Structures are given as C-alpha cells and as structure tokens.
C-alpha cells in the first residue's frame, strides 16, 4: 500500500508532470499575472460576501425554512466555498505551483472540483423539487425538512467522493502518457468521466424543466399561477447562467481529452476559461435577490444596519448622518401582483 502513495510527498513530481505536458511551464509571476491574480482574489471576496449574506438571510428568517430555500441555501454555500477554493487556488498558482507536492496539488484542485460537484447536485435537487412540487402537485411541510437535509448531506458526500478520487488513486502518477494537459496530475479518463457526469446531470435538469413548463402551460388555477411561473423563470435563469459560465470550461476539458500532449496550444490558456466560470458564483446571489423582494430585503438588512450605525456615529462626531430610505424596488416577479406575507418567490399557491 505504501508504494502506491510513495510519490505523494515528492517535491519533484509536480515539476516533472508540468515539464512533460507543457512545452514551457508558464509559472513566472509577471506584473500582468500579479494584477490578474489580485483581480481574481477581489472577485472571490465579493463571491464570499454575497453568498454569506444569502446564507444569513435564509438562516435567520423562518419564512425561508422551506425545501426550496434549503436547496438555494445549499447552492449559496457551494458558491461561497467555491470562492474560498478559488482564492486558495490563485495563491498556490504561478511560481508556487512547481514547489507543491502531489498531495498539496490534489488538495488545491480537488477543492474546486468538490464545490463544482456540489453546485451541479444542488441544481439537480432544485429541479427535482420543482418537478415534484409542480408536476406532481405535492405539498411540502415542515416534516419534510429532515429529508431535505439528508438529501443535501448526500449531495455533499457524493461531491467529496467525486472530487477526492484523484487523491485516492485515480491519477496519472507514474503514467505520464495518460496525463491531462490542463491538469497535469489528473488522468484524462478521470477528467472525461467528471465532465460526462456533469453533462448528463445538466441534460437531465434541462429535460425536467421542459417537462415542468409543459405541465404548467397546460394546467389551470394554482399550478399555472403567476408566482409559480415567476419561480420557474428564476430557477431557469440560474440554470442558464450556470451552463453559460461553465460550458467553455467543460469544452476545454473535452478538448484536453481529445488532444495528444503538446498538440493543442489553446489548452495552455485554460485558466482564462476557468476564470470566466467563477462569474457563475458571483451572479447567482444577484439573481436570487433581483427576483425576490422578500429575500432582497433580508439580504440588505445587515447593510442597512451598518448604515444606521454609521449615521449614529456620524451624529456623535458632529457629521450629519445619511437619511435612510426604505428599501423599495420592483422586479419582474413583483409586477402586477400584491406580495403576500409568505415568500411567494419560492412557494407558489400549490405549496405551503
């Protein structure tokens, strides 16, 4: 058993794999790279703050303790952790890369794969919940919270296993010819397997939403209520943004599998595709709060409290404080209808 993992702590293995898969490993910390790294870190900090505000809003308000909000909170948690993983990945890239041991490299890349897997499974859980709630017209009550939490825990467990397969042994250490160009310590079959799984899941989600739309459009009364259609539009936007942001990265990984080593120069620019994919974690909280007045108010409440505190401090210091205006805005969800006391963003008239 020790021989299988004997190379995991070798300080020369990462350099060996990068030298084999890349003509000239681009790991120098040039000024342009440093500026790009700083921008990515700032972007990731914004991702963390945004999704943390969403998680706080969902946790503190009992109106949001429904199955749908639990799944959206889980998606926000995966996006938050993705921001943390991207920061770690950025800080451990460049000139630091070639000094890493394989186990450190696997931890760096595996954390990103785990959060990506969690996001995909969260989208699948949301689609299944919508299909059950709308197409099957089922009621959700508080007694189902335990089942929802178990489903969320299972999705994270599967994500951990899927992202941890390389460090468990599915890698190309000792088999350079099987190595990925984009991820030089990952075996090409593993990369293809992960992309295939994600593609199949996303295709299944699209199929579920098509079926839901067909059911809603052919239904009457509560199933086709404006609130239900608004929610369906919201989760469809979330799915569309995910596919838009991650499709280029998935495409580059498929190209990586198809190209022999050092034959596709485009693979050396893969980091731009993954940087673009990080925008997904930034945009998701914007979509939630844009589409829901209730959630928007709850998310902005900490900022309002901070403004109130700043105003009080300003008056104490003799500086006029800012007058706080009530948080009023409109969105496509709210137009043409009066918002009830329950969170209609996530629960239509057919659900509790």
Q: Could you characterize what this model shows?
A:
By secondary structure, this protein is an all-alpha fold. Helix content is 65%, strand content 0%. It has one domain (27-305): Rhopdopsin 7-helix transmembrane proteins, CATH 1.20.1070.10. It has helices spanning 13-21, 31-60, 67-91, 102-135, 145-168, 188-217, 226-258, 270-277, 279-291, 293-316. Helix 3 (67-91) runs antiparallel to helix 4. It is globular.
Identify the notable features of this structure and list them briefly.
Rhopdopsin 7-helix transmembrane proteins, 10 helices, mainly alpha, 352 residues, disordered C terminus
CATH class: Mainly Alpha
Rg, alpha carbons: 23 Å
Helix content: 55-70%
Going by CATH, the homologous superfamily would be Rhodopsin 7-helix transmembrane proteins
Largest sheet: none
The coarse overall form would be globular
- Structural class by SSE content: mainly alpha
Strand content: under 5%
CATH architecture: Up-down Bundle
**Average residue-wise pLDDT:** 81
CATH fold descriptor: Rhopdopsin 7-helix transmembrane proteins
Total strands: the figure is 0
Gap between N and C termini: 54 Å
Number of helices: 10
Work out the count of structural domains: 1
- Contiguous uncertain segments of 5+ residues: 321-352
H/E series: HHHHHHHHHH
Family: Belongs to the G-protein coupled receptor 1 family.
Keywords: Cell membrane, Disulfide bond, G-protein coupled receptor, Glycoprotein, Membrane, Receptor, Transducer, Transmembrane, Transmembrane helix
GO cellular component, one term: plasma membrane
Subcellular location: Cell membrane
């Amino acid at each position: 058993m020790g021989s299988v993992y004997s190379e995991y702590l070798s300080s020369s293995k990462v350099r060996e794999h990068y030298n084999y898969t890349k003509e000239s490993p681009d790991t120098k910390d040039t000024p342009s790279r440093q500026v790009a790294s700083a921008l990515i870190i700032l972007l990731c900090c914004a991702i963390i703050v945004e999704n943390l505000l969403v998680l706080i809003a969902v946790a503190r308000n009992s109106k949001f303790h429904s199955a749908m909000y639990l799944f959206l909170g889980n998606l926000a948690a995966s996006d938050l952790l993705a921001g943390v993983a991207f920061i770690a990945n950025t800080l451990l890239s460049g000139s630091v890369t070639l000094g890493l041991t394989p186990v450190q490299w696997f931890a760096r890349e595996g954390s990103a794969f785990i959060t990506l897997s969690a996001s995909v499974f969260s989208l699948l859980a949301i689609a299944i919940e919508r299909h059950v709630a709308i197409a099957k017209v089922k009621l959700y009550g508080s007694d189902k919270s335990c089942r929802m939490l178990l489903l969320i825990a299972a999705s994270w467990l599967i994500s951990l296993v899927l992202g941890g397969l390389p460090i468990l042994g599915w890698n190309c250490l000792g088999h350079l010819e099987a190595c990925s160009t984009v991820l030089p310590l990952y075996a090409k079959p593993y990369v293809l397997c992960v992309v295939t799984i994600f593609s199949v899941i996303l295709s299944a989600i699209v199929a579920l939403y098509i079926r839901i739309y067909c059911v809603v459009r052919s239904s009457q009364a509560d199933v086709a209520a404006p609130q239900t259609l608004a929610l369906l539009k919201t989760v469809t936007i979330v799915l569309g943004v995910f596919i838009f942001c991650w499709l280029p990265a998935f495409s580059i990984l498929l190209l990586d599998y198809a190209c022999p080593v050092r034959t596709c120069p485009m693979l050396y620019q893969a980091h731009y595709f993954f940087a673009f994919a990080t925008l997904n974690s930034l945009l998701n909280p914007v979509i939630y709060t844009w589409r829901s007045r209730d959630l928007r108010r709850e998310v902005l409440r900490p900022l309002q409290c901070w403004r109130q505190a700043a105003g009080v401090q300003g008056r104490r210091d003799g500086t006029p404080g800012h007058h706080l205006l009530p948080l009023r805005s409109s969105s496509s969800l709210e137009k043409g209808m009066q918002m009830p006391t329950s969170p209609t963003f996530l629960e239509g008239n057919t659900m509790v």
